What does this fold into?
Amino acid sequence: MEFSEQIKTQGLDCAKGIADWMIEIQNPHRDDNPASGSFPWIIHPDGSESQANNWNIAFACMGMLAAYKSFKKEEYQQAAIHMGHYLKSLQIFDPFNKNMYGSFREMSPQCPWNYTRDTLSVAWAFIELYRHTNDEEYLERARLWGEWFIKHGLDREGWPLWGFQYEPWFSNREPKMRNDVQGSFQGGSLNFLYHLAHETKDNKWTSDVFEKMANHFITYLQKDDGYFHTIIRDSKEVPDDPQGGLHRANDDLGSLGLLCAYKITKNNDYLESVNKFIQGVFNHQQKDGSFEESVACIPVVLNTIYEGKSLINTSAYSNESIEQALLVLLHSQSDGKDNIRMKGGIIEEQHKQYVCARSSCYALIVLLKLFSSSSEYLSINTP
It folds into this structure.
């Protein structure tokens, strides 16, 4: 991927704007604030906001560490550390919840449920916090989550369960729990296991469970269009998408996970699967450069291409098609005119006009990877 100096400047300016936005919206680091270190993950022009799930904070943490390394601004590092402190408060070490020991609550220290893929992202962020701080506690917390995941988080075929309810609902909603399906987004689990194996120097994390998961992913969940699809567990048929198309070009880092699997096994089937996915994505690229309505997929796709540059087939795309997609992302940054709390965040879907931490944090990590020296996050490389 080659970019003009103008694009590079725009990309760095966009990344800095996202990092500054995160500083502005993060809950104050105060001992009387139970949400200290967290933030709203969606902000609307009318002023309404939604509290971040644990995974939003996990990827924001990685992004802010990357921003600190790129811009040398201490506020960014402190923001990431405060996010880590908040995420610690979600991990369960309760003797009255022994089956959940090591897992994470989804939304708050009192939340009675979680989504497995989301909580994996928290453990992944803990690996990155360990690498950044050398604090062994973060690695042990990630390992303990991994032990819970292997023991309680997989179905009979070794595919991650959608999620868990382990206490009675006590709010006015019941989150979607589709444990009758195998979610396509779970392919990203391979990334965490890959990095956990490296840091713990324990190959059990990339042996049977890991390869079984990678093989299941490419055998049953990838279809002829190249995309990975959620399937019904028992029949392996594709149902009406329970997530409304959220994970198409945004494969939730599943193709990145397959690149990790290739590095471990040298199984070319995994590279063929990634090539098929990238081809499918660019087959659906629209005239304006976007891949679909949500821009969250753009940094995810560009990250796979960046990480797989020496491995995957590059014939599916051109520098022009990549630059077109990148410009769509850069032009989606909010100027804050509708709501100053939105300034710097990425407007995820133009017709909805809200800023969202999903697209913003993916963009922060990948823009700094493309245009700065911070390339260690969402990577197939290890320190």
Summary: The CA atoms of residues 60 and 361 lie 5 Å apart. The beta strands are 40-43, 49-51, 113-115, 163-165, 181-182, 231-232, 355-356.
